[in-house]
Amino acid sequence: MAHIAIIDDDLAMELLADNLRNRGYEVTRYASVAAAHKDLASIVNAQLVVLDLIMDPGPQQSSLSGSRHAGMWLYREIRKLAPELPLFVFSAITDAEVVEVIQADKHATFEAKWNAPKISEVVATVERAMGVAGRPALPQPFIVHGHDDTTKLEVKNYLQNKLHLPEPIVLHEQPNVGRTLIEKLEFFSSKAQLVFVLLTPDDKVAPLDATNEDKRRARQNVIFEMGLFMGMLGRLSGRVVLLHKGPIELPSDIAGVVYVDISHGIEAAGEAIRRELEHVL
Fold it and tell me: How many CB atoms lie within 10 A of CB 255?
């Protein structure tokens, strides 16, 4: 069983540790420079070290000039004992000179925390750094939705727990980090490889029991994002899946495009969804 050492004082790194343990790895997390230095002999015998660079140096390293150098001090200590040990430096550091040092190390991989990668992406980087081929990466899903939160959550649960896809991107659940809404959409849409568009009757332009000419409409943001993703991924790629619920009017530009009817629930439409995804999974 491969042993991975994680040296990071960020409590959120326990999520990465747990994810790796669930995949069968033995993982030890060190929450301080002092704890890692104390157990350095064990750390250098691991198959991979995940290392942050911005950490509290602790009293034993009081000569260090601040937290921005603590991780680099530990990096050098590890390299003295294990010059070829695979290192995955995962840090929010922005010091170009430090990053250049890591990138020049042919046995090290650098990833910026500022890129906000998902846990699945970090795990993939960990396995690449260890030289583990692993299973082919599953496509990253994105859910386009309107006001029907119940259906949105049903779809998200189905994709994760039934189809075992990575956690779908739902735009409003993602961090803003100072972006405008369109900038946020552009950033996260670039990560999407598989899109589920929930066409639900949210905007009432006529009574629900009106004639076909007077159907309800999906939210305008849903129609806009559907067109965006069809342009990005290709209408015929099979990677933009339309999930249709209830009486609803669609733009004439996509008249005749086949959709999956989810009016009776996601589970009832499960087989149809699986068929649509057969050639992309």
Answer: 7
Q: Give the per-residue SS3 of 51-77.
A: ECCCCCCCHHHCCCCCHHHHHHHHHHH
- More confidently predicted of 65 and 258: 258
141-277 is a CATH 3.40.50.2300 domain: no
What gap in Å lies between CA 15 and CA 10, rounded to an integer? 10
| Strand locations in 145-193 (E) | none
Specify whether the CB–CB gap between 145 and 159 falls below 8 A: no
Q: Quick one: pLDDT at residue 64?
A: 45
pTM over 0.85: no
- Cβ neighbours of residue 135 under 8 Å, at least 6 residues apart? none
Q: How far is CA 224 from CA 48, 50, 189, 227, 229, in A?
A: 44, 41, 13, 5, 9
Asked if residues 259 and 276 have their Cβ atoms less than 8 Å apart, the reply is no
**CA–CA separation, 58 and 32 (whole Å):** 8
Domain boundaries, given as residue ranges, for the chain: 3-129, 141-277
Class assignment of domain 3-129? alpha beta
Residue 46 tokens read as 């691991």
* Interhelix angle 70-81/96-104, nearest 10 degrees: 20
